[in-house]
Amino acid sequence: MMKLKYSLMLSFFLSFSVVANSGWYEGKVGDLASGYDGSSVAFRLFELTAENPQIDYSKCTCNPSWNMLCLNPARANVNREFSMLLSAYSAGTNVKVALDTSCNIVAIILPVK
User: Fold this and answer.
1) Cα–Cα distances in Å, from 81 out to 13, 26, 27, 36, 94?
2) Domain of 99: which CATH number?
């Protein structure tokens, strides 16, 4: 029982560290693109806040055709994330995203001002 408890705590901390160590970036959605397959969604953030003022798009490897940020189609809530991006894009409001090292989105929120 104790081993299960420790393994659950370890998995929680590891999953939290992925989000905690990934960069959080806030800005306006721009260059929103969708691939021919219908499941590839990529975008760029503009007007980034002073919190993290730059994204090095040349290091983005989540989509070999574009150097952009990507939604992960394998995530269960990818449709909600895409809806959030479309809404923010059309309204001209900011989104805040957390990225992994290949520029896949691991979390996305609408910041409260």
Assistant:
1) 24, 15, 15, 19, 14
2) 2.40.50.340
